[in-house]
Amino acid sequence: MQATAQRNVLRALLVALKPIAKMLLRNGIGFREFAEIAKSAFVDVSTNEYGLRGRPTNISRVAVMTGLTRKEVRRIRDKISSGDEDLVVKSNPLSEVLHRWFSTPEFLSANGTPLKLPFDGAGPSFTGLVRRFGGDIPPGAMRTELKRVKAIVEDGNGLLEAVKRDVLPHETTDKLITGLVHGLYPMASAIAYNTNPNIVGEPWTQRTAATKHVRNEDISRIRRISRDRLVEFTDSVDDLFMAYETLHGEDPTSNESETAIGIGVFYFEHSDENDEITW
Question: What CATH code is assigned to 93-162?
Fold first, then answer.
């Protein structure tokens, strides 16, 4: 029975790995690089989550759990401890400025909508917003780029208005990293949490709606409707998060006793006839 369950899990994993393989191959990453990073994941998790009395798992137990040799486990642990596998995904400065424009009380109207901002001035201004939340990017360059991606518009009086609350990265590699870290990782984390036999409390919400019986001529319409509804939903959740960001004070940059949370919804079309997926 256990062997059958493991085979079924591995078959499901094969289905899930196919789109990942597509993404990696497009970016010039082959199996050797993937295998090395997969070893790091197995060693890291087995080291930090299966230790006794709060201590890291010893090398011998990690080797037994992962099937790697003790020499390989030691090599990978040294690599991890040196920081070679660290990945810091920085917030896109454009998205950060827009997010703060929609969430910081100083830049909001009485009804909670983003203020139209002058480029500079004594009061709330675009320059002040960028200098506070845009890192080292000059306000002029930020204005130019936000206009280019049609996230802001400038009226006849020179006031800048935010018309989008976020922007997507433009480079393929940036999109891939963002998708893996902010899409695949949280979804996989929810699955890992919900399938933990020792789960404490309620499982995390994990919902999917799907069908195999939609005519091809209806796909474009469904895609458009789905996008509109998903954007509306995620915007409402973003409003909720923004409210809680400032609930206990007006400094949205404070990270005291904070936890990162997120909600993901997604739309996809299954087009690979070689994958046997049963809904």
Answer: 1.10.10
The mean-pLDDT minimum among 40-49, 104-113, 129-138, 252-261 falls in: 252-261
pTM of the shown model: 0.63
Query: Residue 236 has which token pair?
Result: 């409402």
Q: Which of 79-88, 94-103, 206-215 has the lowest mean pLDDT?
A: 79-88
b/e map 207-221, b = 16+ CB within 10 Å: eeeeeeeeeeeeeee
Domain boundaries, the chain: 1-86, 93-162, 172-206, 207-279
Q: In Å, what is the CA distance from 19 to each residue of 2, 26, 186, 212?
A: 27, 11, 17, 19
Q: What is the DSSP letter of 108?
A: B
48 contact partners, CB below 8 Å, separation of at least 6: 56, 57
